[in-house]
């Protein structure tokens, strides 16, 4: 693990320390969690294992669906009744 030196305003550091204490984390763990969350956000919601699993289930569910405009297909099905 690498250590880094970061400069922060005093007030911001106090807020970070309070939040870290409330969440039961050290300052370093809290900042690492924030950074990891921000980096993951760039990759999109599908980066989380649970999201990938859910997206896989949706892909499987719709794998046999016909191509085309789903709204038109629903209207056509409704009008056949």
CATH topology description of the largest domain: Arc Repressor Mutant
Count of beta strands = 0
β-strand percent reads under 5%
CATH architecture call of the largest domain? Orthogonal Bundle
What is the CATH class name of the largest domain?
A: Mainly Alpha
Would you write up a description of this structure?
The chain has 81 residues and is mainly alpha-helical. The chain has two domains: 1-43, Orthogonal Bundle (Arc Repressor Mutant); 46-81, no CATH class. Helices cover 67% and strands 0% of the residues. The chain has four helices and no strands. The protein has helices at residues 10-23, 27-43, 49-61, 70-79. The longest helix is centred in the middle third of the chain and has 17 residues, at 27-43.
List the main descriptive attributes of the protein structure presented here.
81 residues; mainly alpha; Arc Repressor Mutant; 2 domains; elongated
Topology (SSEs and partners):
Blueprint: H1 10-23, H2 27-43, H3 49-61, H4 70-79
Helix pairs in contact: 1-2
What is shown here, in short?
The protein has two domains: 1-43, Arc Repressor Mutant (Orthogonal Bundle); 46-81, no CATH class.
């Amino acid at each position: 693990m690498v250590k880094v030196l970061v400069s922060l305003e005093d007030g911001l550091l106090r807020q970070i320390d309070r939040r870290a204490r409330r969440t039961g984390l050290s300052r370093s763990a809290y900042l690492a969690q924030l950074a990891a969350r921000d980096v993951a956000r760039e990759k999109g919601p599908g980066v989380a294992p649970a999201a990938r699993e859910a997206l896989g289930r949706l892909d499987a569910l719709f794998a046999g669906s016909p191509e085309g405009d789903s709204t038109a297909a629903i209207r056509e099905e409704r009008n056949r009744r």
